[in-house]
From TrEMBL:
Keyword Membrane belongs to the record: yes
Region annotated Disordered, chain positions: 928-963
Residue stretches of biased makeup (Basic and acidic residues): 939-963
TM ranges: 12-33
Protein name (record): Membrane assembly protein AsmA
Domain of life, source organism: Bacteria
Keywords: Membrane, Transmembrane, Transmembrane helix
Transmembrane among keywords: yes
Organism: Chryseobacterium gilvum
Length: 963
């Protein structure tokens, strides 16, 4: 016993010594190595990170992530790589790197084998051009062979751990958005090996996933238990064990993924077998989950999914997607339902070769349910293609909507009525080829009634009797009858009767009558976008044939009636604000829809229209119809700035192109986007038009909008105290770029006022700051606008004449320098009255034709080239008395601010023009000084450049005459 006690004491003694030693080392190692480790980590970060890294404190400790020795960095902020260097990529309460103790103690090397990230926000972003903000890691140069004896910091990861993180991934190029909140991730494996198995444990509290702004997952919980074999040499991922759970739905994945030089190779299969309908419903949007909790749901379901093939953007190759959803013996019943939804069965197959919607195949082999005797629904639908779709459908059912609502336990909506439908369809649907499947069927609804929780009053007495018939598979035999469609809302009856025959040349008879409170009916459906007080009042009778209007047989049309809109709020996907139609009274007279009274506002702008739209019925019938019309437009004030696509406004439903451009260019205004489906002419009268601080008063002229372009003809307005006449054309190319042509004439304007008030004058005519007096201009220009709707000067082409009618030029540096060099002070104040200066612009250079003026008894003339950035290459000939027949040459180079003078010289130094890419709207090369050339070669180059500019000027005339 004594011997046993001795052994126990020794064990306790050595255990205590070991524990104390370990604790001592845990305290002493951070003290012995802190400078070395912190310095090495800082050097490593500076060498390997392209983004800016900021943090508050660093710690070296065993106790934060016991038992690992970690370098912990608190309050980390990492910026993205170019061009996102000002945007946050990662913000974290703590980022810690685990240090390999063996290498640290025995080799003195800092080997990082673990990464910990806590309370982090990661904002991963790819813009529309495919540029990513996460390319912050700078790889080691590969030119030199690896030095295995060198010491320093390296990464050889065995563990990655994220705790309580929020990760956002927005890919504008792929139009994908992922938002994962409450993310906890643990990845284990030899992450630095060439081939290793990565064991992953992932939990996400709330996951959102959308594609093309359509959400396929919202606020879903996700758990993943994965084992993935990764081959870093071939960049191949083999899914060995991959079990996911989305809410309550389990999914198992198998397959592999290879990352290629120009894309991916995919072979992935997923399945959720032998689950329940309730589990399947758990992946629905969150607003439906409370309904599922309160409803009895039974039945079996299976889900299969595969994605196989190669994705390559350069080769235009995409994988094939297949999916199948199978539901069997479904049963749905709420507590108050007199009859449950029984025998719910569905077999849905989807096949999408090459992810091409034109090859989309949908095979709904079965969809059926019963709601008691004589109350059932059956559907079989098979389609192939999209624009040219093969259809085979058989839909039949007689359903009591109130029984359906009660069986499903729908709480936010009450419906009543007997719906009966029987439709059979077989054939090809193609708008381009005017084909329609052979179809015979009807949809009837009697005694309909609809009420939601969003509005206290129901829509009552809903009656729909709709028949569709097609006998030969073409548009010609297609007939649709709506006799009638009627309902009562807010004690106002609405009635529509329509008989449409022969969709190749539509024969239509339509009657519509009623008063509809649009704001309130939209409240019934909890929809936003229309003003609460909006009203539509209709009393229409439309009777005719489509060809009567297109062939000018207007006397055969019998379209008449009125349509009145009041206080309607409307939006378009390209404008940041809403239009408010205060009042719109429209009268239909055969081919014309007259605007008798139309008053609308847009932000600070107001519009009154009087005129007509032509063939509005054809616009709604044609696949890509265009609205034609002629109007008189009157306005007190138009602020062009608030029409720019990226400006802030109340419209939250703008196009994806606009939305992405706004995110990627938050400080930009964008350009004004013109609708592509208008062909409208306007006689415009506006008291005041403002554009970027420039005020145009009393604007009058002809404007037209055609195929996304705006034309101004014989338009004039008051600007800087003078009357300007212009012809112009404008066209947007994207939310960020536009192009324009303009021919302008302005008589007798004040140079100094123009220089002070017009940015473009300051940019194009920097010498104007030294000029006082009255000038006239006759000029033509074309060019591009940038993302702030400012002119891109290297894009400008054109030319014209500036007439110096009554001017005073004092202390122009270039002329003063000439005077100083020849001893003629009169050059400080030359006489330029009545001088015409003709110039031509191209590629950021201004080519000046020869012009002559007076300086005391001298007759100098100037010709040559200058640039918008101030470079000079001018030839001045100073003519001597009498008459200036004899003279001597002077070359002026340098810049406007620092001119260089050479007397008795004809050899200047040319300027190489800028290069501008019209497709990308980018300046490829700025203008610069050329190598010294003979004057003869310079004249030859200048002649060629001037000829290009004159040709551009002729093209402007051609563009403006097109409309």
């Amino acid at each position: 016993m004594k011997k046993f006690n001795t052994i126990i004491l020794k064990i306790l003694k050595w255990t205590g010594i070991t524990i104390v030693s370990v604790l001592f080392l845990m305290f002493i190692i951070p003290i012995l190595f802190p400078g070395t480790i912190s310095e090495q980590v800082k050097i490593f970060a500076n060498k390997r990170l392209a983004g800016k890294l900021d943090y508050k404190k660093t710690h070296l400790t065993f106790f934060r992530h016991f038992p690992s020795l970690t370098v912990s960095v608190d309050d980390v902020l990492l910026k993205g790589s170019k061009p996102f260097q000002n945007d946050t990529l990662l913000a974290a309460k703590e980022v810690a790197a685990g240090i390999n103790l063996k290498n640290l103690i025995f080799d003195g090397d800092i080997k990082i084998d673990e990464i910990y990230v806590t309370n982090a926000y990661a904002n991963v972003f790819v813009n529309s051009k495919g540029q990513a903000n996460y390319n912050v890691y700078v790889a080691k140069p590969s030119e030199k062979p690896k030095d295995t004896t060198a010491s320093g910091t390296s990464i050889k990861l065995d563990l990655i751990k994220f705790k309580d993180c929020h990760i956002k991934y927005n890919d504008h190029a792929a139009r994908v958005s992922v938002d994962a909140k409450g993310l906890n991730y643990t990845g284990k494996g030899g992450l630095s090996e060439d081939i290793f198995d990565l064991k992953t444990d992932l939990d996400i509290d709330k996951l959102d996933f959308s594609l093309n702004r359509v959400y396929y997952a919202q606020q879903k919980t996700l758990h993943a238990d994965l084992i993935t074999r990764i081959n870093t040499n071939a960049l191949t991922f083999v899914l060995r064990k991959n079990e996911l759970r989305i809410n309550k739905l389990p999914l198992k994945f198998t397959g592999d993924l290879s990352i290629l030089k120009d894309g991916y190779n995919l072979n992935i299969e997923a399945a959720s077998e032998k689950t329940t309908i309730r589990d399947m419903i758990s992946v629905l949007p969150p607003q439906y989950l409370k309904w599922a909790d309160d409803t009895k749901i039974e039945g079996k379901s299976d889900l299969f999914f595969s994605l196989k093939g190669r994705f390559s953007e350069s080769e235009n190759r995409k994988p094939r997607l297949k999916a199948r959803l199978f539901v069997q013996d479904g049963f749905v019943s709420s507590g108050k339902a007199p009859v449950p939804m029984n025998h719910l069965n569905m077999d849905l197959n989807v096949d999408l070769p090459s992810l091409d919607t034109e090859q989309l195949m949908i095979d709904l082999k079965k969809l059926s349910f019963d709601l008691g005797p004589n109350n059932s629904f059956r559907a079989v639908v098979k389609t192939k293609g999209l624009d040219e779709m093969q259809i085979n459908a058989d839909i039949k059912g007689a359903v009591n909507l109130q029984t359906l609502q009660q069986a499903l336990g729908l709480k936010d909506i009450e419906v009543r009525g007997l719906m009966d439908t029987n439709i059979r369809s077989n054939g090809i649907f193609s708008l381009d080829k005017k084909l329609f499947p052979k179809t015979k069927g009807y949809l009837n609804l009697k005694n309909g009634w609809l009420k939601t929780k969003y509005y206290p009053n129901p829509i009552k007495n809903i009656s729909i009797v709709a028949n569709i018939n097609n006998t030969d598979g073409t548009f010609k035999s297609l007939g649709v009858k709506l006799d009638p469609f009627k309902f009562d809302f807010e004690e106002n009856p609405v009635f529509v009767n329509a008989d449409l025959q022969n969709f190749e040349d539509l024969l239509y008879k339509v009657k519509a009558k009623g008063v509809l409170n649009v704001g309130r009916i939209y409240k019934v459906f909890a929809k936003k976008g229309l003003d609460i007080s909006g009203l539509i009042m209709a009393d229409l009778s439309l009777n005719g044939r489509q060809s009567y209007a297109t062939t000018g047989q207007y006397s055969k049309l019998d379209n008449k009636g009125t349509l009145i809109l009041k206080n309607i709020k409307a939006t378009t996907e390209y404008l940041p604000k809403s239009f408010y139609i205060n009042e719109g009274q429209f009268q239909f007279e055969n081919e014309k829809m007259w605007f008798r009274k139309f008053f609308a506002t847009y932000g600070k702008s107001d519009f009154a229209l009087n005129g007509y739209l032509l063939n509005t019925i054809n616009y709604f019938i044609e696949r890509k119809g265009t609205l034609h019309g002629k109007f008189v437009l009157n306005s007190r004030y138009i602020l062009v700035d608030e029409f720019m696509a990226l400006k802030n406004g109340d419209n939250t439903d703008q196009s994806l192109d606009v939305e992405y451009a706004k995110v990627e260019n938050p400080k930009s205004s964008g350009v004004v986007i013109i609708p592509k489906n208008l062909d409208v002419s306007l006689q415009a009268n506006a008291q005041k038009v403002s554009f970027k601080g420039l005020n145009l008063n009393h604007l009058k002229g002809l404007a037209s909008v055609n195929k996304g372009q705006v034309y101004l003809k014989n338009t004039s307005f008051d600007i800087i105290g003078s009357r300007m006449n212009i012809d112009a054309r404008y066209q947007d190319e994207s939310p960020l770029t536009a192009n324009y042509d303009v021919a302008l004439k302005v008589q007798d304007f004040d140079v100094q006022r123009a220089y002070k008030e017009i940015d473009m004058v300051r940019e194009m005519a920097t010498a104007a700051k030294d000029v006082k007096g009255i000038v006239s201009v006759d000029y033509k220009l074309k060019g591009d606008f940038d993302k702030n709707m400012a002119p891109i000067y290297p894009s400008l082409e054109g030319g014209g004449i500036v007439n110096l009618r009554d001017v005073e030029v004092k202390n122009l540096k270039m002329l003063s320098a000439v005077g100083d060099n020849i001893g003629a002070n009169a050059f400080d104040n030359p006489d330029m009255k009545g001088v015409n200066i003709e110039t031509h612009i191209k590629n950021n250079l201004i080519h000046v034709d020869k012009f002559t003026f007076k300086v005391s008894v001298l007759r100098p003339s100037i010709s040559g080239t200058t640039s918008f950035n101030g470079l000079l290459d001018l030839l001045v000939r100073v003519g001597l008395p009498p008459g200036g027949w004899i003279g001597f040459p002077i070359v002026v180079t340098g810049t406007h601010e620092k001119p260089k003078i050479k007397i008795f010289s004809k050899t200047g130094q040319g300027i190489i023009d800028a290069l501008y890419n019209k497709k990308t709207n980018k300046v490829i090369r700025q203008e610069r000084r050329a190598a010294k050339k003979t004057r003869r070669q310079q004249r030859k180059d200048q002649k060629a450049q001037t000829e290009k500019a004159k040709n551009a000027e002729k093209q402007i005339d051609k563009n403006l005459k097109e409309k």
